[in-house]
Specification:
It is built from 15 helices and 19 strands. Strands 1, 2, 6, 7, 8, 9, 16 and 18 form an eight-stranded mixed β-sheet that branches. Strands 17-15-10-19 form a four-stranded mixed β-sheet, with helices on one face. The longest helix has 20 residues. The radius of gyration is 22 Å and the shape is globular. The protein starts with 8 loop residues before the first strand and ends in a 5-residue tail after the last helix.
């Protein structure tokens, strides 16, 4: 939307690693951070178990890290971005240590490094085995709480960017516990750091409020959405019926854990030379197909980790124990779950979108680093590298209307039916998992498009629901247009990559189809009719 308004301060929307690191790097410039929950609760970053990829070990190089990134990205990684991120990785790890992150070290004080899938060397910097995300977030939150330049508005969600003359002048927000009241917050610069789209899927490892709102808000402001079809499914979510699904970190496979079916047979060896350490899309499809064939899928850590499990991987061990599973003595039941969105708002090397005054950082951004398939542990790295770059970019323009934080002002109310919202969200999640999951095809994608468009047309005045439906539509339409299989996008009706399509995708709001060429259908009815249910 557009509006005339006075210039304001810097507003960071999102309080995960990307948002908090950006806010800290901006000090002493005044910054307001918008967080839907109290700091530390529900941030995807805090759930990250693997760590941060950085070529800081003996014999490793940023060039080798960049090459692995390009290889994993299945032909569409921006090579210049990959090299830049790999070069700056070591410095950003040192920044995190300066904020108090207790990365694992050996007796000589050197960082302890592990290897994850598709990396050619040990370069994953960890904390207590599987607690990197939690430790990083705890350190940053402590620093943010002490920073006089940072104001945190907890319990608020952004719904709309406000423009004047094509540039950002503010945003509309609502209190999570009072979504009917609309507030306006002036802003000269807005940084979207809201995370990914996991909450739009019925089976995900992400928090429920990660629902793609950055895609919708930025698109309505005129930004381009890139690579939206590329969704990464983690192959080893712990299959215990929890929502969100707890994660069995890839580091377990790095330690030698194997994937087996119910008969105890390893199945990845025949699918890829790297077996369990193949790229995530390959492993996810292998797990998906074993489950679909009725053979089940399990992560067997008994020999590789065994009695060390409680100390080496305390987070995974605790989640297993709570579900009555002893990973020391039993294989862990696993299934693929939506884990990361390679797509997002298209940005340049400084995190700028095409909308003046709007930057995007973290999973909400599409920088070109991940291509079609994110390399393991590059996500936290991207967040800090681009967080620093966004902050430096804003510093360089700080004379352009940056003032002290303004107070949000009430500008109106909306009638929101929360029961209707909950039902529609459930329907969206079911459609996305059923039709836009590990394997897709045109018939399913068009069915999903019908559901998404119908819910989008019915959503107003519930802007939050409209944002979710619009984000879904970008993913579905991009998947329909890419008639090939590449990385995290696998079309069973177009199972091979097409060399002519080895390029990034981009869609604007104006470019979305106005209607599907098949009638909208009730996805829950269709699932029941097919005898398949999505958890």
């Amino acid at each position: 939307m557009t509006d005339r308004g006075a210039s304001g301060g810097i507003v960071v929307v999102g309080a995960g690693l990307a948002g908090l690191f950006t806010a800290l790097r901006l000090a002493p410039l005044p910054v307001t951070v918008i967080a839907p929950m109290p700091l530390g609760e529900g941030a995807s970053s805090a759930w990250a178990q693997g760590g941060i990829a950085a070529a800081v070990g003996d014999g490793d190089t940023p060039d080798a890290h960049a090459e692995d990134t390009v290889r994993a990205g299945a032909g569409i990684v921006d090579v210049a971005v990959a090299r830049m991120v790999a070069r700056e990785a070591g410095e950003r790890v040192r920044d995190l240590m300066a904020y108090g992150v207790p990365f694992d070290r050996d007796l000589a004080g050197k960082l302890v490094l592990s290897r994850e899938a598709a990396h050619s060397a040990k370069r994953i910097v960890r904390v207590a085995g599987d607690m990197a995300g939690k430790a990083i977030m705890e350190a940053l939150i402590a620093s943010v709480r002490k920073a006089p330049s940072i104001r945190v508005l907890e319990g608020y969600a952004a719904e709309e960017l406000v423009l004047a003359g094509g540039a950002i002048v503010g945003l509309e927000i609502t209190a999570v516990d009072c979504p009917t009241v609309v507030l306006r917050l002036p802003a000269a610069r807005v940084v979207l750091a809201t995370g990914g789209i996991g909450g739009l899927y019925a089976v995900t490892t992400n928090p429920p409020h990660a629902r793609g709102e950055a895609l919708a808000m930025a698109a309505r402001a005129g930004a381009s959405i890139a690579d939206a079809e590329f969704v990464q499914f983690h192959p080893t979510a712990i299959d215990i019926g929890a929502d969100p699904a707890p994660l069995a970190t890839e580091a377990l496979r790095g330690e030698g854990a194997t994937l087996v079916n119910r008969a105890g047979e390893r199945f990845m060896q025949v699918l890829h030379a790297d077996a369990e350490l193949a790229p995530r899309d390959v492993v996810a499809r292998g797990v998906f197909r074993e489950i679909a064939a009725g053979r089940g899928a399990f992560l067997d850590c008994r020999e590789a980790v065994g009695a060390r499990f409680p100390q080496a991987f305390p987070t995974v061990y605790a989640r297993c124990a709570a579900a009555g599973i002893d990973p020391v003595a039993q294989p862990i039941p696993v299934a693929p779950a939506e884990h990361y969105h390679m797509g997002g708002v298209r940005t340049d090397a400084h995190g700028r979108s095409s909308v003046p005054g709007l930057s995007v950082v973290g999973e909400a951004a599409a920088t070109g680093l991940h291509g079609a398939n994110r390399l393991a542990s590059n996500s936290l790295l991207e967040a800090v590298v681009f967080g620093a770059r966004v902050a430096d970019d804003i510093r360089a323009e700080r004379s352009a209307g940056i003032v002290a934080e303004a107070a949000p002002e009430r500008v109106g109310t909306r009638a929101i039916d929360l029961a209707k919202r909950a039902g529609k969200i459930s329907e969206l999640r079911q459609a996305m998992s059923r039709f836009v999951g590990v394997e897709r095809n045109e018939v399913g994608l068009r069915a999903a498009l019908g559901v998404v468009q119908r819910i989008r047309s019915e959503a107003e005045p519930d802007r939050a629901l409209a944002n979710m439906a619009l984000a879904c539509q970008f993913v579905v339409e991009a998947a329909l247009r890419r008639k090939e299989s590449r990385g995290g996008h696998f079309r069973s009706d177009c199972p091979e990559p097409d060399p002519k399509l080895a390029r990034r995708s981009a869609i604007t709001l104006a470019g979305l189809a106005l209607r599907s060429d098949i009638a909208a259908r009730d996805v829950l009815t269709e699932i029941a009719h097919a005898g398949k249910k999505v958890r």
